[in-house]
Amino acid sequence: MKRTLTYLVMAMGVAAASPVLAEGDAAAGEKVFKKCKACHAVGEDAKNKVGPVLNGVVGAAAGQKEDFKYSSNLLELAEGGLTWDEETLAAYLTKPKDVIPKGKMSFAGLKKEEDIANVIAYLSGF
């Protein structure tokens, strides 16, 4: 429980340090999302890959896709109330290991705030 609380506090701190997101451009986000397609899918016929399908992720509680095997670290944070709101997604897309330190995602993150806002806008459409 103590470890879960520590991770949750870390994730909240990262999210609080992230800039408030202006509405992004979904069309531009679709182009940026190409970097994510090797591991994630979106859309009506999307299936899990190395990472889960991201339909409905914006605003959702973490770790909720029943047919995906999440890291134990992510599941601990999910039990603590981790939600993929825009701020948490922005922090995660910037530097995933700062939000989920022992998570399975090997992606280093996106560097541009505009790209992050655009990807979140794109994902919001699913």
Walk me through this protein's architecture.
The structure is a single chain. This protein has one domain: Orthogonal Bundle (Cytochrome Bc1 Complex, Chain D, domain 2), CATH 1.10.760.10. The longest helix is centred in the first third of the chain and has 16 residues, at 2-17. Helix 1 crosses helix 3 (72-79), helix 2 (26-32) crosses helix 6 and helix 4 crosses helix 6. The chain is an all-alpha fold and 126 residues long. The chain has helices at residues 2-17, 26-32, 72-79, 86-94, 96-99, 113-124. Helices cover 44% and strands 0% of the residues. The chain is globular, with a radius of gyration of 14 Å. Residues 4-9 and 14-20 have low confidence and may be disordered. The chain contains 6 helices and no strands.
Key traits:
Cytochrome Bc1 Complex, Chain D, domain 2, Cyt_c_1A/1B, metal ion binding, Cytochrome c, electron transport, signal
